[in-house]
Amino acid sequence: MMYTLQTSLPARLLTFAWLLMLSFVACQNDDTDNPDKPLEQEDPLKPRPAISTRLSGTVVDESGEPLAGVTVRAHGQTVVTGADGAFLFSEVGMPANRGVVAAEKDGYYPAIRGVVPVKDNSTHVRLVLMSDAATHSLDAAAGGDAVLANGSGVTLPPQGIVTADGQAYSGTVNLSVRYLDSSSPGFARVVPGGDMLARRADESTALLYSYGILRVLLTTSAGEPLQLAPGKPATLTVTIPESQRATAPASIPLWYFDEDAGVWVEDGSAVKTGDKYIGTVHHFTDWNCDDPKDRATVIGEVVDCSGNPIQMGEVLAGQSSSDIGNYVTVDNTGGSGQTEFAITVPAETPLFVMVPKPFGLGTGEGGDLVMVPVPPLSPGQVYNVGKIQPHPCPSSASGSFKLAPGERVTSVAFRVTDAGPNEGLGNGVQRIFNPPTAFSFTPFPPEATLSMAITTSSGAVFTKVFETPAAGQNADLGEIDLTDAAGLVTAHGVASCGDTPLNGAAIRASWQGGNATATSNSVGVFSFSVPANTPVVMSVTHEEHMETRSFQSTAGDTYALGVVDLCAPKVFENDFTLNGDGFVNVLHTIPVQGDEGVALGFYSENEDITSIVVQNAANTLSMTLEFENFGVGQRPASVVRQAVVGRNVDDQWTFYVSDPATETGSYTVNVTKYDGPGGRIEGTFEGTFYRDDTVPVTVHGNFRVHRAF
């Protein structure tokens, strides 16, 4: 028995008791479909012998945007995410019952998840990084409170902070305090560990039922880590979500997250005081207020409109009527033949198993979560919920690839570019590795526009955009011709910061009708394939640095990009020449380097206007231009807006203005370079300008600015 709920989350929660009552009736009348299956439970935290798997996934931020340059580690191997946030371990060994995957990037808390690998096939994981930006600052000598808006927080003891090497610290303490609401639908995606497995004080394994988590990070003003001093405990206050207060016990164990093992570890307890749990801790990491439970298992299958297993998706489980505490990914892309999902849930607890719509965020808002009630299960019980169909019924796409001899498709990545009538769709990429030449992909949201990035074994990337049909229908994409790969050129270069090669820089190249991504290796080298004789815009990103270049690929096997120095000071030479009003072709140069002066370009998509703003550090020369459209090419007087050049002598500004809209002068612009955000806008301008609307001068000049957006 399943239910499709499309209302808001609060409205869904009011129906829980009714749904649960119906589920009990269904179970009593349908014991043959869902028999108790006593299971001799093995301890998932006692590693079984290792197996080999292909591990893929994506890393996103809290808003669902892909993150590039993230370091991902799995059992002794390391890779770095590309521009689309994707990563791949072609083969990694991990314990057959549970592996651990970790993702790290400066500015974020690490994301660590337990996964159950698929032997000799594909295992997929999605990792969400949370910002670790400082929320409070305290004096280490005085200590004090760092309290969030909901009342959760920490109290630091006076003179109770030490550096990483154990030395007493007396300066400013920056705190990042983040509260994880266990009643939030997004809880399962960000909770450390992912599967809520924990090691109890008696070394037994439990599954946790959370009443709230605090993530706490202490650093110096320079970003160096700090910790509590021995014998100087801190007070931890965690607000209990409103929907869980009635069941919250009077006291509850505290658990910290062991990042190396990827599990929660019991350490101390907290006491319920009003609507909060209060306890003491002796070190800071992620702290969890949890009731330990025995484990049960729910199995089932997610299918399309025809009853066939879907290829990719998610299944979520709610620990109670209002929170989603665990989830697993569905990945049937590798042809393993194993189409059932299995998700570990707390025993003796009523819950839902939920399936989001295709590409959905699974928050329940904007809705369309299919929710299957599950009654309280006995420890070790395996409960089969049968087949679950997402709502709306997903659409599919089929076709075939036409390939050059010796070529094959290594991956296909899908992203929603226009949600159409669908609400609550995510921004992430869903990727299928090594698809067959004749393909059929599902599930997709109906009546949406998707971008399909096809990567071949030669490294070529082809992009096809298509619209999905109505619910339950198939889009016939026909034969997709990928034979133009023979005309590709390998562009290569080195990413650096000064003389230091950059490992893990994310490279993205785009051109009319296609794009490519790459990641620099340990010596900064990167390469990607582009069509010959094609204008290309390339961006190279590493942490807070970004450089954008435009180039024209040539015929031949390779194209050398040289060294791309992301840390080189940006030097922008701008100038204008005045002829008239006492000037005879007098050149005024405006040098701008680094933070000395301003040389910026902006593009407003709403107004379709490009703006150029230049001013020197001495505040003696300035120049502004506005013109329609973006991209290279001529801008006649009919599409330019106001332009102003100015001189400041003895704190007296003189401005020369050209504004075709008011017939005060006239000028033209020729844009010779127009990069993406982070790159450059360059060109020339010339025309007639006026001082005080009466004195004409002839002006011509050059601009070279950094494009901010």
UniProtKB/TrEMBL annotation:
Molecular function per GO: carboxypeptidase activity
The protein's UniProt keywords, in alphabetical order, are: Carboxypeptidase, Hydrolase, Protease, Signal
Q: Which Pfam families match?
A: CarboxypepD_reg (PF13620)
Q: What superkingdom heads the lineage?
A: Bacteria
Quick one: signal sequence residues? 1-28
What InterPro entries does the database record attribute to this sequence?
Answer: CarboxyPept-like_regulatory (IPR008969)
Q: Does Protein biosynthesis appear among the keywords?
A: no
> What protein does this entry describe?
Carboxypeptidase regulatory-like domain-containing protein
- Species source reads Dawidia soli
